[in-house]
Structure formats: structure tokens, C-alpha cells
Amino acid sequence: MRGYDVAVIGGGIVGLALADAWLARHPGTRVAVFDKEPDLAAHASGRNSGVLHAGFYYAPDSLKAQLTRRGNQMLREFCTERGVDVRETGKVVVATAPEQLPRLDDLYARGQANGVPLEMVDEAALHELEPLARTHKRALWSPTTAVADPVAVVEALAQRVRERGGEVHLGTPVLDAGPGRLRTPYQQFAVGHIINAAGLYADRVAHWFGVGEEYRMLPFKGLYWYSSWPPGRLQRHVYPVPDPRNPFLGVHLTVTVGGRTKVGPTAIPSLWREDYGGVRGFDAREVWDVARSYPGFVRSPHHDVPGLVRTELPKYSRRYLVGQAAALVPSVRAEDFREKGRIGVRAQLLHVPTGRLEMDFVVRPGEGSTHVLNAVSPAWTSSLAMAEWICDNVVSA
Ligand SMILES: Cc1cc2nc3c(=O)[nH]c(=O)nc-3n(C[C@H](O)[C@H](O)[C@H](O)COP(=O)(O)OP(=O)(O)OC[C@H]3O[C@@H](n4cnc5c(N)ncnc54)[C@H](O)[C@@H]3O)c2cc1C
Q1: 339 pLDDT exceeds 60?
Q2: CA neighbours closer than 13 Å in the CB half-sphere of residue 155
Q3: Cα 79 to Cα 40: distance, rounded to the nearest angstrom
Q4: What is the per-residue DSSP string for 132-175?
């Protein structure tokens, strides 16, 4: 039987970042990443907005706060090293009503506490930064928010893992694993330490090890629409003030690395994990599993679930979704946003006993294993810092 010192289940950005960080610390060790898909970046890591978040949304004592600012910096350095383009868009957060201003102030205070460069600007300064955006009295300006092509980043990271001596096995699902062993359709392996970075399936993999039994994954679907505007017309990402009862950031406009404008993503509850449209990935057992989790979530005192459903479901309509973005950028018209983007599904962890969606990254140790259970946004931005933190603080191979 072949063996590895470390095997990573899941070759998204988090799994690759972990293999990369491990190899940087332990050169010459045998490390393999297994991904079930034939191509890299097939799931969230290649289906996101590519926004390098700055790190000002998160409670100062959270892992997100700790790892996002550093992750932003590390990802920039990585992109520079590997020749991956980063567009310095910055980002503005705008208020659409007076009652949002106290929340805008809270965001500013969080940014200060998290050591993130941020500026509160008035309407005139906003106009200078992004002439298309509108706000009520004040807006937040985040100069360190940027954008890159998420697929290009993942491919470059896989390349660095290989250069450091790691193996990346695509088209290789892990069917079963436990302490010290892992099985694919082709082979069994003896493994010193297993890292679970399986994204939408991280809960299932963790349960093989008896870890995180109290958790289930709830998938939320993110739709995007691209505009026909000439590249560069919108210069900055434009976000609303988030609703604190809603775990997601609300409909926003982002600029791609090539300068195109897109609206999205939504956070529409989904009935199976890889629900990218059509029946691909449909699995009746999975639908049952997800459906079983919803009643606890719907009754949850922690979130306004009926409100979330009421505001998210209509976003299946392009006109409705684009109409929401027009509150931030009035020149947005539904007829200019007709090109569908690649759908992404958020792997959001539900704490079943309380019906609470976990808002922070969740990482759990297990016997001979480490489990990244809640690599929600902005884990793409935070991945390199998260991997550094996990290798230094959690993994003991
Ligand atoms: C719509 C959307 C927009 C987002 N926007 C942003 C953003 O702008 N900025 C940001 O920082 N973050 C963003 N995020 C979050 C970010 O994309 C994720 O946090 C990040 O990609 C998680 O990476 P991952 O490696 O954990 O997951 P994934 O990319 O899903 O990787 C998990 C991998 O595990 C593999 N796998 C699963 N089970 C097995 C198995 N049994 N055997 C082998 N392989 C397996 C899958 O094939 C997959 O490739 C967004 C997410 C979504 C969905």
C-alpha cells in the first residue's frame, strides 16, 4: 500500500493552500491532494466573485477578522510572485436609507478594530471615487479590496504545490477515510494525517471520523448576471450595508479583473449541494438530508429565515435582482444585464441543535485528521493565512 505523510481531501483553494503551507514547513514530506473533479476550481473556488476582501465586516475576536486582512496581503503577494493579475478596484459600501447609517458606522468601527484601512466619505467624495454609485449622506471606502480571476489563482496555487513536491490527483474521489487510511476507486493509502477540505461535502467527510456530528451543510445558490457595459465603466465594487439578521452581504455589483461589471451573487436556499442548474449533481438522498435540516433552520431564533426566503427567492428573476442593484447604482438597467454568470453554491454550515448558521470559519481536530468545516466567504481571500494558521496551530501529524 502506498503512503503519504499528509493527504488532503478537496483540491479547492483551501485544500491546495493547506498542502502548500505544509510543504513550505516540511519540505521533502509526501503530500497528496485528492479532488473528485477532473478539472481544478470546479466548485466554490472557481465560481466566486474573485473579490479579495479587506476584512472589515467581521467581529474582532473572530477567525475571519484574524485571517482575512493577512490573507488579502498574502494572496496579493502570491499573485505578484506568480504573475496573476490583480485589479485594484477598491470598494465602496453605500447606504440606501437613513436608518442604515448607524450600521455603516458600526462597520467602520469594526474595520478600525480589525486594523483594516478604511475611510468614511461624504457624497461628494463618493462621486469622485465612483461616479455611478449613490449613497445617503455617507459611504465607506475600502482601498485594499481588489479582484483577481479565481480560476487563475487556483491553477497557480496547484502549480506551486507541484513545484514544492506535492501530488495533485484530479478525477480522484475519496470514497472513504478514517484515521491513518484513505480509499479512492483506484487504491487504498496509508496516511499519517488527513486534512478534510471537501467544501460542500466537508460535513460528510468529518462524520467518517466522528467529528462535527452536530453539523450539516446547508447549500445556498449564488446567481450572477454580467452587463453589456464597456469594461471600466464601473470602477469600484459597490456593496450595500449588510442586514445583520442575514448571514450574507446582500446583492452587490462587482468588477472583474478584466473590468466587466456583474450583479450578484444571490443566496437562494438550494435543495442539493452541487445545484448548478438542471439535474447535474442531483441526489435524492442528499435532497432528503438537506430538506431535513431546513425545519430547524426555519424555526431558528438566530436568523430572520422567513425574511431571508422572502427576499432571496424573487432573485431567481433577473429583473428583480438587477432592480435591487439599481438602488446602489441608479444607471443599472435590467436590459443591460442579460449574460448569465457561472453559478456558485455556498457551503454554509448549520449547527443542527440550535438552528444557527455558523458565521465564522470552523476548524476541528479529529483522530489523525483536521477538518475545515465552514470555509465560507471570504475563505478564498483568507485561504493562505488560514492554511498557515491551521498548520501552525491545529495539525499535529
Ligand atoms: C457565489 C459565491 C461567491 C463568493 N465570493 C467570494 C469572494 O468574492 N471572495 C472570497 O474571498 N470568497 C468568496 N466566496 C467564498 C469562497 O469561494 C469559498 O470560501 C472558498 O472557495 C472555499 O474553498 P474550498 O476549497 O473550501 O471549497 P471548494 O472550492 O468547493 O473545494 C472543495 C473541493 O473538494 C472536492 N471534494 C469534495 N468531496 C470530495 C471527495 N469525497 N473526494 C475528493 N474531492 C472532494 C470538490 O470537488 C471541491 O473541488 C464565494 C462563494 C460563493 C459560492
Answers
A1: yes
A2: 10
A3: 17
A4: T---SSEEEEETT-EEE-HHHHHHHHHHHHHHTT-EEE-S----
Q: Ligand 1, residue 46: give the atom nearest the CA.
A: 29
pLDDT in tens, 216-226: 999 999 999 99
Distance 20 CA to ligand 1 centre (A): 17
Q: Which residue has the cell 496581503?
A: 73
| Residues within a 6 A CB radius of ligand 1 | 9-15, 34-37, 42-45, 47-51, 53, 173-174, 197-201, 222, 265, 344-346, 375-381
Q: Whose CA is nearest to atom 49 of ligand 1?
A: 12
Give how far the C-alpha of residue 219 lies from the chain's centroid of Cα atoms, to the nearest Å.
Answer: 12
- Whether 189 contacts 182, CB under 8 Å: yes
Q: What is the torsional sign of CA 370, 373, 374, 375?
A: positive
Distance (Å, whole) CA 184 – CA 174 = 5
* pLDDT-based confidence at residue 61 (cuts at 50, 70, 90): very high
197 CA distance to ligand 1 centroid (A)?
9
Residues 6+ apart with CB under 8 A from 63: 360, 361, 363, 386, 389
- Assigned fold of 2-393: FAD/NAD(P)-binding domain (3.50.50)
Tell me which residue of 315, 361, 342 sits closest to 256, measured CA to CA: 342
The residue to mutate among 207, 345, 380, having the most atoms of ligand 1 within 8 angstroms of its beta carbon, is 380
